[in-house]
UniProtKB/TrEMBL annotation, chains A, B:
NAD(+) binds at Y130, Q191, N214. GO terms for molecular function: histidinol dehydrogenase activity. This is Histidinol dehydrogenase. The keyword Ion transport does not apply. Zn(2+) binds at Q259, H262, D361, H420. Belongs to the histidinol dehydrogenase family. It comes from Mesorhizobium retamae.
Length: 430, 430
C-alpha cells in the first residue's frame, strides 16, 4: 500500500516537502573505478575493450568482432517476430513525423541600423547512443534516441550495446537499423562510453553521447562531459495521475502499475479529491498485482515510493503538480485543457481519460526520454534540439561599425579591456 | 611570439592534433572543499553565508545585509559614469531585441489518425545568476545572462555577486537593474551556489543557475546539478581569425590581442594563406603590446597558446576551423558568406573585415556567452532556450487509442512490460 497524504492535515506542507526530497536511488560511488576504466581504454584502445568485455560481459570480441556486421543485422530481422517488427516501423514513422516539426529554423535579418544578425543551426556531426543490455535493453528506447538524431541530420549515429554472453536482443538491432543507426558495437559499461568519447582503432570518436545506463555508465558520461556533450542523467521513472472520482479505478490502477513495474525505484503518485475513489484505486492496484508478471517489482515500487494525495478541491492539485514536476503527468479529468493552461512543470502531459502514459512510451510519436527527479522544473525531454547546435552570426559594414563603436568603446573602457576598444577604434581611424 | 604550424609540413596532422588537445587550464581539485561548503550552507543557512563571506570576502554581511537594497542600487546609479550607463542601456535594448526573436513557439496539431500532439514552452520559474567579483566583474556579462532570462519570462532572476571588502562594482548593480534582475545578494563562491540551489532563510531556492565563476564556483555548479539546472562550464576565451593577405595587419593583430588580454589562458589563432601577412601580423602584435595596459596578460596568452597556421589555399582553413570549433570565429575575407556556408562548428561567426569580435561582446545584440574548448561541436551559446523548457502533450480519444493500441501492446509485450500493455487494453475491453 502506498502512503497517503491529505492536504487538509495540519502537517501536510511538512510531509509533502519531505516527500519531494525523498531520494529514490542510492548513488553508488564508482568514480574511481570508472576513472581507471576510461584511462585504460584511452591507453589501450581496442585491446582494452576486448579485455573488459571478456571480463564484464563474458563475450569474446576477439572472435565475435567489436563491430556488428550487416549479416548480424539480417540475422536479427530473421529472428524477430514479424508483427513486432511492423510495430517498430509504425512507431518509427510516427516518431519521425512528430520530431520533424521540431527542426529549428535559421534566422537572418538586418536591423534598423543595417547590422546583419542571425542564427544558423547545424547538426552535431557524430552522436553515440548507449543502449543497456539485459532486461533494460528496450528497442523502443533505441527508436526514441536515434530517430531524433537522424531527423536532425546527424551523419554518424554510433550505437553501443553490451552483448552479455555474446548475445544482443534481435529487436534492438532491428530498431537500430530501422532508425538509421550507422554503426553498432558490442560493448557496454564505462569502457563503451570511453571508446565513444576518445575513440579506438576501430571506433572513431563522437561529439555527443546520449542514452540511459547504470551507475557506471552515468559516472562515465559525467567524466567525459566537456570532451563530448552528454544528455541528461536519467533517474528512475515516475508518473503523477491527477484524477477525479469519475474515472474507472481499474484504469487508473493500471496506469500506476505500468510505471511501478519499470523498477523498484520507480514512483507512481495519484492526486484526487475523492477519498472513496482513492480507496477503490488502491484495491484495484492490489487486485491487478496478483496477475502481473513483474508483480514483485511493481509492488515494491508502490509500497516504497507510491503515494496518494487527497486534496479538498482538484484544482489544488495544480500547484502540487508544479512542485512535483513529474516526468509523466496524466490529467484524467473532464476538462484537461483547463488544467494544462495552469501548469508549468512536467516532462510530458497526457490529456484526458483515454491517453494512458504507455501510449507515449511507444507509438504516439512524442519522445519517451523525459526529465526525471523534478528536473522538469528546468529541462525538457529529448528532441531534435539535442542533436543540433546554433552558430550566432554578425556582419557589419563600416557604417554600422561607426554607429555601434562609441557604446562598445565606452563599455570596453569601463571594463578595463583596452584591446577590445582598440580592435573597434583601429578600424575607424579613431 | 606564437607558434607557427604549416599545413604543408609532413608532421602537420600530428602537430595540429596535439595543438587541439592542449589543455589551457589546470583544474584545481577543489571537490572536497566545495562539498563541505555546500553541506555547511545547507545546515547553517544565512549564518553560514555570513561566516564564509567574512572569511573569504572580508565583508560583514551582519551589518551590510545579505540583500542589496533599492537604496544601494540608487547609489550605484549616482556613482556610475552617465555615458557608460547610456551605453549599457543601448546594449540592453539591442540584446533584448535580438533575443526576442529566439522565443520558441508552442506547437499543437492533430495528426491524420486524430491524435493530438504538441509542445508547450514555459519559462523556468526562478534563475540564479552568478557574477564574479574583482576584475572579472563585467557589467556586460550581467546583461548577457539576465536579459535572455527576462525575455524568456523568468519571474525571479536572482543575482549573487561577492562584495570584496563590502564593495560591489556600481556598473554591475546598474546593469542588473537595467536587465530586470529581481533580487541581488552580496555573496560569492561555492557558498553562493549552495544558497541558490538549496535556499536559506533570506534566499529562496532557484531552479537553474547560470553565469561564469572560478574553480570553486564551477565545482559547486557541478555538485548541485540535478537539484537545479546549470549552464555550460565556461573555459578560457578564444578566437580564430581566418584572414587573407588583403587585411590590414594592424586590424587583425588588434583582434588577436583583444582575445589575449582576457586571460593568460585565452587563445588567439590566425589562419592565413599568406606568410608575409602572417609575419606582418606578428610584428603588429608585438608593436601593439607595447601600449596595452594588460600587455603582460596578453603577451603570456599569445606566447603560450597563440598560433599562426599557414595553409596553401585559404579554403583549407574550413575543415581545420570545424575541428577547432572556436568560441569566436572571424572571417576576414572578401566573401565570408561562401565560407560560412561550408562551416559547421563555431560559437559565433563574425563576417567580413568590419566585424571585430569585440562588437559582439558588447552591443551587437547577440550573446557573448558562447561554447569554449571545442564544445561548439555539440553546444550553442546562451539564448532564451536556456531559460525555457518544453512539455510534450498528447491527447487521444477512444478511436485513436483503438488505432494505436495493437502496436503499443505488441511492443510492451516484446519488452516484457505487461502492465504497460494492460493500461492500454483495459480501456478497450480487450
Amino acid at each position: 500500500m502506498a502512503v497517503t497524504l491529505r492536504s487538509a492535515d495540519p502537517d501536510f506542507e511538512t510531509r509533502f516537502t519531505a516527500f519531494l526530497a525523498t531520494k529514490r536511488e542510492v548513488s553508488a560511488d564508482v568514480e574511481a573505478v570508472v576513472r581507471d576504466i576510461i584511462a585504460r581504454v584511452r591507453a589501450g584502445g581496442d585491446k582494452a575493450l576486448i579485455d573488459y568485455t571478456l571480463r564484464f560481459d563474458k563475450a569474446d570480441l576477439g572472435s565475435l568482432g567489436i563491430a556488428v556486421s550487416r549479416a548480424d543485422i539480417e540475422a536479427a530481422y530473421a529472428a524477430a517476430d514479424p508483427e513486432t517488427v511492423e510495430a517498430l516501423k509504425f512507431a518509427r514513422d510516427r516518431i519521425r513525423s512528430h520530431h520533424q516539426r521540431q527542426l529549428p529554423k535559421d534566422d537572418r535579418y538586418t536591423d534598423p541600423l543595417g547590422v546583419e544578425l542571425g542564427s544558423r543551426w547545424t547538426a552535431v556531426e557524430a552522436v553515440g547512443l548507449y543502449v543497456p543490455g539485459g532486461t533494460a535493453s528496450y528497442p523502443s528506447s533505441v527508436l526514441m534516441n536515434a530517430v531524433p538524431a537522424k531527423v536532425a541530420g546527424v551523419e554518424r549515429i554510433v550505437m553501443v550495446v553490451p552483448a552479455s554472453g555474446g548475445i544482443i536482443s534481435p529487436l534492438v538491432l532491428v530498431a537500430a537499423d530501422l532508425a538509421g543507426v550507422s554503426e553498432i558495437y558490442r560493448i557496454g559499461g564505462a569502457q563503451a562510453v570511453a571508446a565513444l568519447a576518445y575513440g579506438t582503432e576501430t571506433i572513431r570518436p563522437v561529439a555527443k553521447i546520449v542514452g540511459p545506463g547504470n551507475a557506471y555508465v552515468a559516472a562515465a558520461k559525467r567524466q567525459v562531459f566537456g570532451t563530448v556533450g552528454i544528455d541528461m542523467i536519467a533517474g528512475p521513472s515516475e508518473v503523477l495521475v491527477i484524477a477525479d472520482g469519475k474515472n474507472d479505478p481499474d484504469w487508473i490502477a493500471a496506469d500506476l502499475l505500468a510505471q511501478a513495474e519499470h523498477d523498484a525505484s520507480a514512483q507512481s503518485i495519484l492526486i484526487t479529491d475523492n477519498a472513496a475513489f482513492a480507496a477503490a484505486v488502491e484495491a484495484a492496484v492490489q487486485r491487478q498485482l496478483a496477475t502481473l508478471p513483474r508483480a514483485e517489482t511493481a509492488a515494491a515500487s508502490w509500497r516504497d515510493f507510491g503515494a496518494v494525495i487527497l486534496v479538498g478541491d482538484l484544482e489544488d492539485a495544480l500547484p502540487l503538480a508544479d512542485r512535483i514536476a513529474a516526468e509523466h503527468l496524466e490529467l484524467a479529468v473532464d476538462d484537461p485543457e483547463a488544467y494544462l493552461a495552469r501548469l508549468r512543470n512536467a516532462g510530458s502531459v497526457f490529456l484526458g481519460r483515454h491517453t494512458p502514459e504507455a501510449i507515449g512510451d511507444y507509438v504516439a510519436g512524442s519522445n519517451h526520454v523525459l526529465p526525471t527527479a523534478r528536473s522538469a522544473r528546468f529541462s525538457s525531454g529529448l528532441s531534435v534540439l539535442d542533436f543540433v547546435k546554433r552558430m550566432s552570426l554578425l556582419k557589419l559594414g563600416p557604417d554600422q561599425l561607426r554607429q555601434l563603436a562609441p557604446a562598445a568603446i565606452a563599455l570596453a573602457t569601463a571594463e578595463g579591456l583596452d584591446a577590445h576598444g582598440r580592435s573597434v577604434s583601429i578600424r575607424l581611424n579613431m
